[in-house]
Amino acid sequence: MLTPAIAAGMLMMGAQAGTDGAAAAVPPPMAAPDAPAAAQAPPEGAPQVLVVPPPPVMPNLPGADAPAAAAPQPGEIVVTGHTRPPPGDPLERLNEKSFEAVQSVDKAVVEPVAKAYNKGLPKPARKGLRNFFSNLQEPVVFLAYMLQFKPGKAMETAGRFTINTTLGVAGLFDVAKRKPFFLPYRPNGLANVLGYYGVGPGPYMYLPIVGPTTLRDIIGDTVDKLIVPFAVGKPFNEPKYVIPATILNQLGQRAAFDETIQQIRSEENPYAYYRELYLKQRKAEIEALHGRAVEEPVTPVYGPGLGKAPPPEPTPTP
Predict the structure, then answer these.
(1) Alphabetically, which GO biological process terms does the record hold (predicted)?
(2) Is residue 135 part of a domain?
(3) Residue 268 phi/psi, 5° resolution?
(4) Which residues of 277-294 are buried (b: 16+ CB within 10 A; e: fewer)?
């Protein structure tokens, strides 16, 4: 039997050991406050489950209207990506950069020169130059209609070329479209031939100097521009003619295009708006070769109709 002193000492040691054991069983400060105070150990061999406590809730800072956006939680899938280019324009980002660069140069250089060209050269002279360059392409239009098996329109084109080259003073005056001939100008070329037989436009491109085009159109237009120089020869294949003729032709087109280009620049997305105008005009021209009309009005952004307002939309009947 223990003596009272020894028994008291043993009781004190037991209380101290119990206090140390209870302190060891208390969860660490990082544990969730609502976690169970004591958890029984799972039986030996049972699968262990790791419970990830939720992140601590941070109080709003003084003056903050709303808490910041929540960070991705453990196990949460976050999907990021970028907008894909629209169908038909896989090079959209590159084309947009080209469009912006061309517009910057146009505003700084080409537009002032085109406006000076408009003011310095009388309208009959500007129109005569455009008629001259259009008349030079009539052999290409004739060939395109023959390839499309449209001999009637091909003969009309040959008649236009003959009349305007002779009576129209080398094409400066479009006599053929007036009475008594009534032979209007109809643009055509290899790109239209390809489109007529079902060749798609291919990827859209915006190129310096060339402007809006497609793979089909750039191939066809390049061949069209080479036919007359190779078929006729001098002076149409010499730099002393090609360089000034190209500059005058481009200035004439830019001067006629000024009002439309200002409208394009005022749009929310000028690049996309210009692209839609071009593709819509090209589609309408291919449809016209098949005798099919388009429902929406077309704003010409190139060719002889450049600068002319589209026809008014039909008023819906009640």
Answers:
(1) intermembrane phospholipid transfer
(2) yes
(3) -65, -40
(4) bbbbbbebbbeebeeeee
Whole-model pTM: value is: 0.71
Q: Is residue 317 part of a domain?
A: no
Residue 144 lies in a domain: yes
70 backbone dihedrals φ, ψ, rounded to 5°? -70, 140
What digits encode the pLDDT tens for the residues 39-80?
Answer: 455 555 555 555 555 555 555 555 445 455 555 565 555 555
Contacts of 249-252 with CB under 8 Å at 24 or more apart are 249/129, 249/130, 249/133, 250/209, 251/113, 251/114, 251/117, 252/117, 252/126, 252/129, 252/130, 252/133
What are the pLDDT digits (tens) for 251-299?
Answer: 999 998 898 999 999 999 999 999 999 999 999 999 999 999 887 888 8
Residue 251 DSSP SS3: helix
Number of domains within the chain: 1
Domain that holds residue 282: 91-290
Q: Which residues of 132-169 are buried (b: 16+ CB within 10 A; e: fewer)?
A: bebbbbbbbbbbbbbbbebeebbebbbebbebbbeebe
